[in-house]
Amino acid sequence: MSTCERDALSEASLPIRPPSHLRKYVRALATAADSSVPSYRVNEKRLWESVHDTAKWGATPDGGIRRLALTDLDKAIREWFVSTVKFLGCNTKVDEMGNIFATRPGKSSSLPPIGIGSHLDTQPAGGRYDGILGVLAGVEILRVLEENGHQTLAPLAIIDWTNEEGARFNTGMVSSGVWSGRYALDFAHALPAAEDKSKATTLKSELERIGFLGAMPASYKANPLSSHFELHIEQGPILEDEGKKVGIVTGVQSMGWLIVTVHGENQHSGTCPMARRACALTSAARMISRVEEIALAADGLSTVGVINSWPQSPATVPHKVVFSVDLSHHSSEVRERMIAETSEEFARIAQANKCTVEIEDIWNSPAVQFHPDCIGCVRDAAKSVAGENGVKEMVAGAGHDSVHTSDRVPTSMIFVPSKGGISHHPDEYTSSEQW
Amino acid sequence: MSTCERDALSEASLPIRPPSHLRKYVRALATAADSSVPSYRVNEKRLWESVHDTAKWGATPDGGIRRLALTDLDKAIREWFVSTVKFLGCNTKVDEMGNIFATRPGKSSSLPPIGIGSHLDTQPAGGRYDGILGVLAGVEILRVLEENGHQTLAPLAIIDWTNEEGARFNTGMVSSGVWSGRYALDFAHALPAAEDKSKATTLKSELERIGFLGAMPASYKANPLSSHFELHIEQGPILEDEGKKVGIVTGVQSMGWLIVTVHGENQHSGTCPMARRACALTSAARMISRVEEIALAADGLSTVGVINSWPQSPATVPHKVVFSVDLSHHSSEVRERMIAETSEEFARIAQANKCTVEIEDIWNSPAVQFHPDCIGCVRDAAKSVAGENGVKEMVAGAGHDSVHTSDRVPTSMIFVPSKGGISHHPDEYTSSEQW
């Protein structure tokens, strides 16, 4: 997360609870589902083909996809998406962030649509399922409803959120974030494309170039939903390890990043006695071991993913080490305590090793609790398909567009197993039966 | 140290003891010194000016010097050196490695000269004293002898060894190494200049370009010395910390580098449970702490100077970490035991963390014991200047050209304090009084 992204975050207002006036729609829908919706089944083979046919836009030889947001490949699948949903009876709207809403009319035109959304962009070396499954499962739902001639009570909107990965424009989930009011439109429009060192290519200029800069405000007010559901691969190994088929996602954990800089003294490896050293890397190694202990004790997660040392000479005691610490926990409060303990312990370790330490909290996202009515819908549906023992209630470990929709409308997610827990990688896999 | 450098090392023959037939010359000289040499004193101010005047070739705004081997700046100081020593009655010889031998005739023309050598090249951001002091102190000795009209028994050779730092041509002490037979001439000539990615610029082509490719073989046989002395800054803090004025260097410690590669598994920081992780960096952190314990227990030195992780994403458990381990000890045998213990412990730590580890011994240099007669000369002279309590016998922690001369002729070194133990840095400092 960049500095400007952080600034945008701190400026944004973040209401915690979804607006209560919308809850009744969800309950109405749940009731309708129980009483009048027959138990339709998706066509596994058709969904499988849809995922793998559209993979041609960005397919890599290793079986993955490279389809960065707002590139010509993204344009191609967006155009396919628009023409496909039109054929299935939807009208489509594109907002100022290029978010596409494919709306299938419901019996009640006064109800805001029920959203089913995810994203069609990928990581630079991404897999075939992350995000894509969520949008194409929505298309499959349209097909099932269409072939059964079924009209839902509320309209249904299948949504492709723009630049969820944040791989090309360096803020993940930015477009659902503008829709929810978390990010300012100008901030998002000005995000530069990662590949253009001149910063002349922006999210807005690319939206314009590929013809997906809509006129409709990207806003939950101008373009409301009554709720948001997202089917996603777990991106972790828990469902597979526990032999579960479906994850009922009750929320998203609290997460964030620290950047830790340890300052020591540049000394000669062969001539400086051990007792006289101020080795930034020896200190950092102790900190890395310690933060892991802190996370384990709190039943949270800690990851040090990036580390670099200066001056990168084997014969020189490093005078500077910078590393990242990713800390997450189901509870925002516990995560705050983990950070406090980490800061104290790092200062203690630095001092004991004649070093100093600076810790910068560059990004954090509080825990999200999804809406009980939406969770209830997911729970009932999941159990009806996978049975009591085939489901698991769980908290998502990664960020998703649903984090932002949840700020404004009742939201929940459905997880399916990720083989080996692998994601953001060409080896990403979930079988069509698991879908 | 590169692969080819390693190959050259393993091919070289490394006799341990200096040739015995030369010892008598050293003893003769020592006797002559005791009986007939008056107690001349160097002109501190003149030496100080010499060091700082010649710093113009490569002076940097921060007070340091950047004078990489065989650049135009190195050419300039070499030409100054040659003209200065000629004026002081020396004849000069340049060998195939560009080593310059400035020889002042002695009473006995049949004795090989007594060598006083070091180097005039620097690190990219080097100080004003490392190497330079050793050569220019030799020039000052010539001046003192000249102004006193004194002729030594054996001839005296002031030597500038080429590319000691190895900063431009990536093998330190390579030219004294060719002279001693440790490196093949062809290997050394073919070393590419670090700044030329095409590898077309070599040590030989640069010698030719600046006019310092001599015809004389770089060889202790074709161009013998009877002994070698080197005045050098300590590059460590021991003399300063203990309030000593002169270090009597009895040898050079055993040293070398391991490159350690830890392989883990690329996992998602937010979704992979701690217990399921194979984090290459968590393993590496434990290894870094452990090798320090091993070094402390053995009274040796360990340094991890370089570390890098892959894929450098804060939100990804790193699947690969590579780091260097510099291990040194006064005793080659103890250092071997440190390496064995390190290898065992690293394998154990890797396994306990579901990782694997590869350890490559990319360079090592056994301990060097300087010649007792030379050490005796240094001891007597040092005590006469600094008093019994002003001297300290010590083992050098870094490599010097004297390591290579010691393979062939009786050698010793003299250390003067380094302020704050700082070296290879513009802040390097030793007062003229300490010289």
Structure in words:
The structure is a homodimer of 435-residue chains. In chain A, helix 3 (44-54) packs across helix 5 and helix 10 (280-297) packs antiparallel against helix 11. In chain A, the strands form three sheets. In chain A, strands 1, 2, 3, 4, 5, 6, 14, 15 and 16 form a nine-stranded mixed beta sheet that branches. Chain A is built from 13 helices and 16 strands. The first copy, chain A, is globular. Chain A folds into two domains: 3-253 and 367-421, Aminopeptidase, CATH 3.40.630; 254-365, 2-Layer Sandwich (Alpha-Beta Plaits). In chain A, 34% of the residues lie in helices and 20% in strands. At the A-B interface, strand 8, helix 10, strand 9, strand 10 and strand 11 of A face strand 8, helix 10, strand 9, strand 10 and strand 11 of B.
In short:
Chain A has about 425 residues and is an alpha+beta fold.
